[in-house]
Amino acid sequence: MPDPVVQDPAELAGAPDAFQRLWTPHRMVYIHGEGKPKGEADCPFCTSPRKDDADGLVVARGEHAYVVMNLFPYSPGHVLVCPYRHVADYTDLTVEETREVAELTQQAMRVIRRVSNPAGFNLGMNQGAVAGAGIAAHLHQHIVPRWGGDMNFLPVIAQTRALPQLLGDARQQLADAWHA
User: Fold this and answer.
1) At residue 139, does pLDDT exceed 90?
2) Which of 45, 91, 113, 146 is least enclosed by beta carbons within 10 angstroms?
3) What is the pTM for the complete model shown?
4) How many CB atoms are located within 10 Å of the residue 167 CB?
5) CATH number at residue 49
6) Is residue 33 scored above 70 in pLDDT?
């Protein structure tokens, strides 16, 4: 991976502005969708619940949806709520799926609060690749615990996230606390 290049605005053509540019050409792989699942057979949100909980990183299971650790977390305890059915658009969920995604989201927030006491949460669904969905073909709700000062410069300049907890350990803590 090439090193990021920071460019002074005075070096650019046209009228300079107040912004420096951090060029990150390695992101083009993500933008072009290389390595993305092609369908249900290789969709991680379809294959994960077919595994045992520890191997699939599943925290909790419902009838229509389940909670799974994010394989590429923004912060410790970052989970996803996914319907079992391979569906892309929120408006295509059934009433039962919509209800259970909402209930599992609420329960995940309660459990994460008990386990790690975050100061807040980011909740969200990115609908479509252009909106930032890493896997646009299978709907998933992000639940990202947040603490004051939890993000730093590492993701921007070093393509690195500092995560103090292993996924398996976080999954076990959340799974153990789920029904407590």
Assistant:
1) yes
2) 91
3) 0.75
4) 16
5) 3.30.428.10
6) no
Domain count, the chain: 1
Residue 80 domain-assigned?
A: yes
Give residue 89's pLDDT: 96
Q: Is residue 1 part of a domain?
A: no
Q: Is 117 annotated as a binding residue?
A: no
pLDDT at position 79: 97
Q: Which two tokens stand for residue 92?
A: 């295509």
User: Which residue range is the domain that position 66 belongs to?
Assistant: 40-178
Nearest alpha carbon to residue 79 among 36, 109, 118 = 109
Structure token pair of residue 172: 């076990």
Catalytic choice (64, 78, 138, 140): 140
User: Per the structure block, which two tokens stand in for 93?
Assistant: 């969920």
- Asked if residues 97 and 65 have their Cβ atoms less than 8 Å apart, the reply is yes
pLDDT number for residue 19: 62
* First CA to last CA distance, the chain: 45
Whether residue 70 is annotated as binding a ligand: the answer is yes
Q: Is residue 7 part of a domain?
A: no
CA 7 to chain centre: 30
In a domain, 22, yes or no: no
The least confident of 10-24, 25-39, 159-173 is 10-24
Q: Reply yes or no on whether 140 is catalytic.
A: yes
